[in-house]
Structure formats: structure tokens, C-alpha cells
Design a protein that fits this description.
The complex is a heterodimer of chains A (382) and B (532). With 382 residues, chain A is an alpha/beta fold. In chain A, 43% of the residues lie in helices and 16% in strands. In chain A, helix 9 (265-277) links the parallel strand 14 and strand 15 (295-298). In chain A, helix 2 runs antiparallel to helix 3 and helix 4 (109-115) packs across helix 5. Chain A starts with a helix and ends in an 8-residue tail after the last helix. Chain B has four domains: 34-233, Heat Shock Protein 90 (2-Layer Sandwich); 252-320, Helicase, Ruva Protein, domain 3; 336-478, Ribosomal Protein S5, domain 2, CATH 3.30.230.10; 483-531, no CATH class. Chain B has helices spanning 20-26, 32-38, 48-69, 104-109, 130-142, 206-216, 257-266, 272-279, 285-294, 308-320, 336-346, 404-410, 456-508, 512-531; strands spanning 75-84, 87-94, 146-151, 158-166, 171-180, 188-196, 221-225, 231-234, 351-356, 360-362, 365-375, 386-391, 394-396, 420-421, 427-428, 431-439. The radius of gyration of chain B is 30 Å and the shape is globular. The relative contact order of chain B is 0.09. In chain B, strand 7 and strand 8 (231-234) form a beta hairpin. Classes of the chains: A alpha/beta (382), B alpha+beta (532). At the A-B interface, helix 2 and helix 3 of A face helix 13 and helix 14 of B.
């Protein structure tokens, strides 16, 4: 180990130092918060912690910055009879984080949930409860959960096409060149942390796709070759790693990012919006975990008419989601084009899936739809 | 809507025309006994189950009335002996004053004979119909005589009677009358009736009846042996006899034409004015004059000369005359203290309360309402409340739906006392409600004395008593809920505060002593803040 550290050429040493500094900062934050609680208790006061409110009501959208920025609204959680359980759980989650960071270990969100099973009465009943407390702590310190030693268990997303990812062997540190054109009918899987990766590419754009089915079709017919692009499967609302991966391609390789999702309110205001400007839930990390330059390719409500696509009626939840977005989502509110698109969809009362294009032939999407769309990228929704 | 079926024309059967002569051949006096045999349901003998219960009830009612009138603490022995399929011998024995030899045949062998019908006094029996009817039922179903043993004087032996009733003549026939005595027998009466019946347990059975009787009569000691030979004892909750009920004269407002005529025939007064003054309560010279003259009669007219028509005019005149309410000191309620003591003796609950209202009057009859409530403990929590209805301390087990007491309970809003209650139903929860009406004349809906008639004045009194007791109960229920809530919160705090300590210890590397101090201080702070 000592030998390695002395090698100035080792690209990991700076990152290690950086990581160490981050770890020290997090530990200090945990310590400070705990001291504050201790001091108040000993002074016979009721301790309290102030958490940023994690919802769309506490973010603002500034197009110049390009992402949902956290506002200063906080909820104060004072230790009372009603809050004592969550309060104790939050502190125990912080203690667990401290232990992880100190020992340079990690726990998945699910593992953290299982660790709590050893906390007797303070254990979490279901994982969403422990996730929420974890996200509170994350927001409290305004750090990424990885810095607290917690990692998600879901993978980041799949990649295929004109991209070489440069990673390192976990043991030897040897450079690994991963050619994303060479996965055949499979794909490269985005890791949980993408900060260490470097990229080489001559692609002209990135195409982010909601469904695995559509991704499979485009990979099978090597659409990436004919269009000279990188295909990324989002698999629903994109994970933080996926958002960060696309963001780095967008920033560092100056690649345009086009998004291709189902034509429903969930595809618009959840998947696309989260990819482009981030979420209200973890707004403190939006700055790095979104792709402000992303543009919306389809499927738009207009496409339903233009391409004569088969539809399904909007469900109650779809309508509610669309109305909610028009009313409360700062991003949708900012873009008249989006507001109109959603209003139009509510009026039409129908939704459409990406794969509805198959009505005109299985490869219609490759032969007709995407080329026609790509011919006029300026018409894409913002 | 379905159309009513078209009326079918009645077919007149062809038969020989009756003549006045042929009809006269069929017309004859119907004896009371014969009437009963055809209308036994009116008196509570409509089913074998009820017949058995009614027989016991009548015998127990008589025994208790007799004891109390003689101011003897009642000591009862009740036994049911199985003598064949659906056949039982009922034995009820008391330590009352006994019955003089000459009266025994008439009391037990003649319907409508007794001391109670002719006077206004709070007592269990009212009509003097019960025990002889039970005897007759037994005789009709088993052909066995009623056996009575009675002793009035400790220094003389008692008498053993065996009686049957001549149902045509409504007259007792004495089959046997001999001397009898037992070791240690001082005084009292023992009745044995054998009858066809069905013995049942449960809420309308004999066991329930005796238990409820004991509850409303805390001064009574009952030993009971059921057909299986199992013996149970209902202990006394008090050694105090109830205040003796006083006899009062009828109040004019409660009098009907028939009674007025009967009283007029029986009176010793020679003038109408004196008749009203002497035979009725609260009628002074002024009121008497006003009644008589208001009917267009002379005050000096002899009462014997009253006719149906003049009697009706008098009744109308009474209604127009202002007469003070009857005296109410004639009633003998159970009393709040005794009710609570009795419930505590018999019922395992957390909370007991009782309310005895001041006496009130309906149609010239004084009455008084009482309510007892027991809540919690081992009473069933997830069932509807249990309602015990009483009239002059006698449990009413049938016809709950038609009874004014039930109406009073149903019309009370128990939700405001912290209980659950569905629309038109009894409240639910671990609740026992006793409702008692004491009166010189309890208005029953029928002769079988199962339900109290719904006079507005009576329902109103029931509701007022229930509300008063309900408010007490509400305070208790709310206090219990608050205490439970407090305990829950306290347990909740104590459950999670240690984890605050553990977490802080882990993060800050505190010693066990420091950690304990944090937990103690925080617990103290939260406890304090909660009480403010």
C-alpha cells in the first residue's frame, strides 16, 4: 500500500485524497449535529434538527442554471412524543453512517434496512421507511448518499454504441478500455459511481430510451451504427448514476442528448423532467445529477396524430399526475410548450407507448420515425 | 308496486238459521278459569318454556311481597325437579309470615283472588291472578294438584294442602288438608306445582331471572337448585329491608268509569261529595264540590245511585277540575346506594353508578324511575350492552322491543358518553344497564306483565335518569381513555429514548454514565412537557 501511495503517477491517489477529505468533512458534520442534540438535552431543552423540505415545493427552476435548485424551506423536527421514534432512528442512521465512513465500508440501502433490524424497537418495518430517513440525513448534510457510505442496489442503466468507457481494474488499478460497440446483443452496465470513468467517442448524439424493449430493438438492428450515436436504456426514472453518466457525456464530450419515452404524463413529468432538471426529493444533489441540455424527442401528444398511433385511455392517476405537474412542477410551469403538451394530452384523454410505432411495422421506428425526428431536432420539446 | 289482490266475494255457507231460542241454549256464563284455559297466552303461559318461567316468577313474586310486607328479610329456596320428559316440579319456599289456613284454598285455587287488586300500593304482583293461574296450568297439563305447606306461628304446626281448581266454577277443591311440621320450621310458605314445561338457560331462562331478581333485590337471599341438581346461591348485598311501601287511595286522574262505579258501590259514604273526599287522594271539600257540580249532580246524591252515564259525566268533570298531584312518598325505590352495592356484589366491572329520580306522576299514578350502570371489567367489550328491565323490582325478560324502558335506552345518545352506538340499537361496549320503574300501578302493555307501556311521562323520566347516569359514565370512559392514552405515550417515549442515547453514545463516544444521563434527562424533559 505504502509503495502504491508513493507512486505519483497513480491516478487514484488524488481521488483517494479527495475522498478522504470528503469523509472527514462528513464525519465532522455528523459529530456537530450529535453534539448539538446532546447539548440541548443536557440543558433540559427539547432537541431539534432542521431538514430541508424534500419536495417540488422547495425547489426553483432557473433555466440559466438548468436544474431544480433547492430553496431554503426547512422542516424542524423537534423531539416530542410524536416524533421520538423517527428522531431516534435518524440519529441511529447517522451513527451507522459514521461507522461506515470510518471503516471505509459501504452498505446498500437494503442492507442498511437490515442493519436496523438489530435496533429492537427502533427498527424499520419496511425499507421505504429506512430510505426516507437516509434521504433526510443526506439532505441534512447536503451530501450524496455515497458520501455517507450508503449505495443503491439498482444498477445505473444500459449502454450500447459508439463509446469507449475507460475504467480501472479494481485490484491492479490497470486501465480497462470498454468498447460499447462490442457487446453484441448485450450492453454495458453503468456502475453505481461514475466519477472515475473517462470517455472516448466520436458519436454525434446520445439517445436515452425509457423502455428496455425499445432499447433491445435498436441494439438488435445496430441503430447506433447507422445513426452514429450512443444508446442508453433508462429503465424508468433514471438512477442518479445514470443521470450523472449522461451528464458527463453531455458536458465533457459536448454531445446532444435526446430523450425517447412513452407518451404519457409519467414519461414527461417524471422520467424526462428528472433526467433534465433533477428531482424535488433529493434536490441538494440536482446540480450534478441532471442533464440540463437534454431535449425531448418523443413520443409527443402531437405524434399520436401525426403518426396515427394506437392509444390507451388515460388512467385516473395519469390525469392526476398531469394536472399536478401543470399546477406544481416549476419546470413544466416554466415551459409553455410543456404545459400545452400536457393540457393537450389531458384533452385527448389518451396515452401512447413507444412500442405503439410497431403498428406500422416492427422497424418503422428505425426506418421512419427516428430519421424523420432527427431531421428536425430543433422542433424537439425543451 | 304490487296491485292489491282483487277482493274475493265471501261465500256464505248455507246452514240452519239460528233462533233466539237456540242461541240462548248456547249462552252461558263463562268462568274466569275457563276463560284462562282458552287465553293462557295473556298471562304468560303461551309456550312450555315461558310457562315454567312464569310459574317460578309468580311464586317468587308472592313470596317476596309477603316477606317484605311482614318486614322479614327474605330467605328463598327455589328448586326445579325433572319428573319426566318436559315435566317438572317447581318448588318455591319462603320464610315469610305464612298464610292462615282459611285463606290458602282461595289464594291458590281461585283466580282473581288476592289482596293486591283492590288497593294501590307498590308491590310485585298487581292482579292476584298469577299463582292460581300457574296452579291451574299445572293441573291442566299434568292433572296434579298444587301442594302448599304453610306455617304462621312458630309454636303451632303448619298445614299441608293439596288443591285442585274447579275450572267451571272458579272454585278451589281441597283434596287434602293435614297437619305438617318440620324441625326448625318457624314460619313461611312452600308451594309445589308440577307442570309440563321446558327448562332453558340463557338470557330468558330461570337462571337469568333469579340472577336479575337478586340484582334488583339486594336484601334477598336465594338458594337455587336446577334440574341437574346443581345448587347456586345468590348472596345478600345488604341486610336492610327496603322502606315499606305505603298504600294510597286512588287519585281521580287515574280513575276510569268501571273503577269509579265499583268504588261507588263499595263505599260507606252516603253523599257523592263525601265519597270523593274519603275515597280519593288529594280531594278536599272544594275539589269534591267542583267535581260533583261540574257533572251537573248534587253533592248530596248517594253514590249508590251512580249510573254509567252519570259516572262518565263525573270522569269528564274530574278532567276539568284542578287537583293536586297524588302523594309520592308511597313509593319504595331500590335506592342509588343499594343499586351500586348490589351491582358490586354480582358484577365484575370497573365503574358503577346509579340514579334514582324524584317521583313523578302519570295519569294520577305516582311512579319513580331508577337506573344502574356497570361498565368495564369482565363485561363483554365487543357486544351490545346488556339491558335489564325491572318493574317494581321484578325482571322483565320478554317483549323488550315494546317496552318503554328499552325505548328510553335506545333514545339516549350514548355516543356523547364515549360509547359506540349504531342507529336505533343499544350502545355497544362492556356495559350493563339496569332500568327500574317503581309505581303503585305499573302500566304494562298486557296482562302477562312483560313490557311497560309507553307513556310520555314515563319515557321522559327513563331518559332523564339514563342521561344523568350516562354523564357519570361518560366522565369515567373519557378518564379511562385519557389514562390509556397517557400510558401508551409514556411507554412509547420509554421505548425510543434509549435509542437516542445509544446513537449519541456511538457517534460521540460517550461513557455509559454520560449516556444514562442523557436518557434520564431527556425522559424527564418529555414527561414534564407532556403534563403541561
Amino acid at each position: 500500500m505504502a509503495k502504491k501511495r508513493s507512486t505519483t503517477r497513480n491516478p487514484r491517489s488524488t481521488r483517494d485524497r479527495c475522498k478522504k477529505a470528503q469523509a472527514t468533512a462528513v464525519l465532522a458534520q455528523i459529530d456537530r449535529e450529535a453534539r448539538d442534540v446532546e447539548r440541548k438535552i443536557l440543558a433540559h431543552e427539547k432537541p431539534s434538527m432542521k431538514f430541508p423540505i424534500r419536495s417540488l415545493s422547495n425547489v426553483t427552476y432557473r433555466p440559466a442554471r438548468g436544474f431544480f435548485q433547492l430553496l431554503r424551506k426547512k422542516k424542524e423536527r423537534t423531539l416530542t412524543v410524536g416524533t421520538v421514534k423517527t428522531f431516534a432512528q435518524t440519529l441511529r442512521m447517522m451513527a451507522l453512517s459514521k461507522q461506515l465512513v470510518e471503516s471505509d465500508d459501504i452498505a446498500t440501502k437494503r442492507e442498511a434496512y437490515y442493519v436496523s433490524k438489530n435496533w429492537d424497537d427502533a427498527r424499520f418495518k419496511e425499507q421505504p421507511e429506512s430510505d426516507a430517513v437516509m434521504e433526510d440525513v443526506e439532505a441534512l448534510f447536503e451530501v450524496n448518499r455515497e458520501q455517507l457510505g450508503f449505495i443503491p442496489e439498482e444498477k445505473g442503466g444500459d449502454v450500447a454504441g459508439e463509446l469507449v468507457v475507460i475504467d480501472h481494474d479494481r485490484e491492479t488499478g490497470e486501465e480497462l478500455r470498454i468498447d460499447c460497440t462490442r457487446f453484441g446483443s448485450g450492453a454495458y452496465s453503468i456502475p453505481i459511481s461514475v466519477e472515475d470513468l473517462r470517455f472516448e467517442t466520436n458519436a454525434k448524439f446520445v439517445l436515452a430510451i425509457e423502455t428496455a424493449g425499445m432499447f433491445q430493438r435498436l441494439v438488435k438492428h445496430t441503430y447506433w451504427r447507422s445513426a452514429n450515436c450512443i444508446l442508453i436504456s433508462l429503465g424508468g426514472v433514471p438512477t442518479r448514476a445514470c443521470r450523472r453518466f449522461i451528464r458527463r457525456l453531455s458536458d465533457e464530450r459536448r454531445l446532444p442528448v435526446y430523450v425517447f419515452v412513452d407518451g404519457d404524463p409519467y414519461g414527461y413529468s417524471n422520467i424526462y423532467r428528472t433526467l433534465k432538471v433533477g428531482s424535488g426529493n433529493a434536490a441538494h444533489i440536482n446540480e450534478y445529477f441532471c442533464v440540463p441540455k437534454a431535449r425531448f424527442l418523443g413520443v409527443t401528444p402531437e405524434d399520436i396524430i401525426e403518426y396515427d398511433l394506437p392509444t390507451h385511455p388515460l388512467k385516473e392517476v395519469d390525469i392526476k399526475r398531469a394536472k399536478d405537474a401543470i399546477k406544481n412542477d416549476p419546470f413544466i410551469q416554466h415551459h409553455a410548450a410543456w404545459r400545452k403538451a400536457l393540457e393537450k394530452q389531458i384533452k385527448m384523454g389518451v396515452r401512447v407507448e413507444q412500442q405503439a410505432l410497431a403498428k406500422h411495422g416492427l422497424n418503422y421506428v428505425i426506418d421512419e420515425y427516428l430519421p424523420r425526428k432527427m431531421a428536425n431536432t430543433r422542433a424537439f420539446l425543451p | 308496486m304490487a296491485k292489491p289482490a282483487p277482493k274475493r266475494r265471501k261465500k256464505t255457507p248455507t246452514r240452519a238459521k239460528a233462533t233466539a231460542q237456540s242461541m240462548a241454549g248456547q249462552q252461558r256464563e263463562i268462568s274466569v278459569s275457563e276463560f284462562f284455559t282458552k287465553n293462557r297466552h295473556l298471562l304468560g303461559f303461551d309456550s312450555p318454556t315461558k310457562a315454567l318461567l312464569t310459574t317460578i316468577k309468580e311464586a317468587v313474586d308472592n313470596a317476596l311481597d309477603a316477606c317484605e310486607e311482614a318486614e322479614i328479610l327474605p330467605e328463598l329456596y327455589v328448586e326445579i325437579v325433572s319428573t319426566g320428559e318436559n315435566r317438572y316440579r317447581i318448588i318455591v319456599e319462603d320464610n315469610g309470615p305464612g298464610i292462615v289456613e282459611a285463606q290458602v284454598p282461595r289464594i291458590f285455587g281461585k283466580l282473581l283472588y288476592g289482596s293486591k287488586f283492590h288497593r294501590l300500593r307498590q308491590s310485585r304482583g298487581q292482579q292476584g291472578i298469577g299463582i292460581s293461574a300457574a296452579g291451574m296450568y299445572g293441573q291442566l297439563t299434568t292433572a296434579k294438584p298444587v301442594v302448599i305447606e304453610s306455617k304462621t306461628n312458630p309454636r303451632e304446626p303448619g298445614r299441608h294442602f293439596e288443591l285442585v281448581i274447579d275450572t267451571l266454577k272458579n272454585e278451589p277443591v281441597v283434596k287434602k288438608n293435614v297437619e305438617v311440621d318440620y324441625e326448625g320450621w318457624k314460619h313461611g310458605t312452600r308451594v309445589e306445582i308440577e307442570l309440563e314445561g321446558i327448562y332453558k338457560g340463557g338470557r330468558r331462562g330461570v337462571d337469568a331471572y333469579l340472577q336479575q331478581t337478586s340484582l334488583a333485590n339486594p336484601h334477598v337471599h336465594i338458594t337455587y337448585k336446577d334440574p341437574k341438581g346443581e345448587q347456586s346461591v345468590y348472596e345478600r348485598a345488604t341486610d336492610e329491608l327496603p322502606e315499606p311501601a305505603l298504600e294510597i287511595q286512588p287519585h281521580p286522574y287515574g280513575v276510569e268509569v268501571g273503577l269509579l262505579l265499583r268504588m261507588a258501590k263499595a263505599t260507606k259514604s252516603r253523599h257523592l261529595k263525601a265519597f270523593f273526599q274519603n275515597e280519593f287522594s288529594r280531594v278536599g271539600p272544594k275539589a269534591a264540590t267542583s267535581i260533583v257540580e261540574g257533572a251537573g249532580l248534587k253533592t248530596s246524591t248517594s253514590p249508590k245511585r251512580l249510573t254509567g252515564e252519570t259516572a262518565e259525566r263525573l270522569i269528564a268533570s274530574i278532567a276539568r277540575t284542578k287537583i293536586p298531584s297524588p302523594p309520592t312518598n308511597c313509593l319504595s325505590p331500590i335506592g342509588e346506594e343499594q343499586l351500586v352495592a348490589s351491582m358490586k356484589e354480582q358484577i365484575d366491572a370497573d365503574f358503577y353508578t346509579a340514579v334514582t329520580r324524584s317521583p313523578s306522576v302519570y295519569r294520577g299514578n305516582p311512579f319513580q324511575v331508577e337506573v344502574g350502570i356497570a361498565y368495564g371489567g369482565s363485561l363483554p367489550a365487543d357486544e351490545l350492552a346488556t339491558l335489564y328491565r325491572y318493574a317494581n323490582r321484578v325482571p322483565l325478560q320478554y317483549q323488550a322491543g315494546a317496552c318503554a324502558a328499552s325505548k328510553g335506552v335506545l333514545q339516549t345518545n350514548w355516543k356523547s358518553y364515549g360509547l359506540q352506538q349504531s342507529r336505533g340499537a343499544l350502545p355497544s361496549g362492556p356495559l350493563l344497564v339496569m332500568v327500574h320503574i317503581a309505581s303503585v300501578w305499573v302500566p304494562f302493555t298486557s296482562e302477562s306483565k312483560e313490557a311497560i307501556a309507553s307513556y310520555d311521562e314515563i319515557i321522559k323520566e327513563f331518559k332523564l335518569a339514563l342521561q344523568q347516569a350516562g354523564r357519570e359514565l361518560g366522565r369515567h370512559v373519557k378518564r379511562r381513555a385519557r389514562e390509556r392514552d397517557e400510558a401508551k405515550k409514556r411507554a412509547y417515549i420509554e421505548k425510543y429514548i434509549p435509542h437516542v442515547g445509544i446513537a449519541l453514545q456511538e457517534i460521540l463516544g460517550l461513557s455509559d454514565r454520560q449516556e444514562k444521563k442523557i436518557v434520564d434527562t431527556l425522559t424527564d424533559t418529555l414527561e414534564r412537557s407532556r403534563k403541561i
